[in-house]
Amino acid sequence: MGRPPRHDVGRLLDVAVELAADGPGRVTVAAVARAAGAPSGSVYHRFAGLPALRAALWLRTVERFQAGFLDALRGGPPDRAAGEAARHVVAWSRAHREEARVLLHGRSALDEDGWPAEDRARLGEADRRVRAAVRDLAGRLGVEEERAAVAVIDLPYAIVRRHLLGGGEIAPGTEDRVAEAAVLLTRR
């Protein structure tokens, strides 16, 4: 039995998150290797190049976020689901500050157009899952989809963006205020 790899995919992506939180342009193969204390060959062994590394960074981050977000959207009575989904955006961002900053910078900052086709397809599927869940929530609430999206996506992200990209902390109680606002926005 061989020994486990010293520089596994998870560790390399953790390092990439740290770099990307301060600006996605900081994520290069050389920078990730240097920060991980790994030879560049270890990075290239696990990723087909910089576009694949950046795609893996984005996809892992967005899928981690979406797991709880989608659960919140689909759970319980629709007004409660709206509040819990908005709350999740803030709570997850507080708990995963660097990953949240990666998401706030946006996938285009990670050169999405150059990603391998299979990664772009995986991203498309993740986007479709969120759109479908928001559409379903809007139907259950009896409101237009745009209204539901503003309540559970746009509003909480704007608040998180203001705090995290501005270098500050998310104020205590923000989750409660965002959840309350989401519920109010989704009432007919």
UniProtKB/TrEMBL annotation:
InterPro entries given in the database record: Homeodomain-like_sf, HTH_TetR
Record key words, sorted: DNA-binding
The organism's place on the tree of life at top rank: Bacteria
Transcription regulation is among the record's keywords: no
Domain HTH tetR-type: 12-49
Recorded GO MF terms: DNA binding
Gene3D superfamilies: Tetracycline Repressor, domain 2 (1.10.357.10)
Protein name: TetR family transcriptional regulator
Organism whose genome encodes this protein: Actinomadura litoris
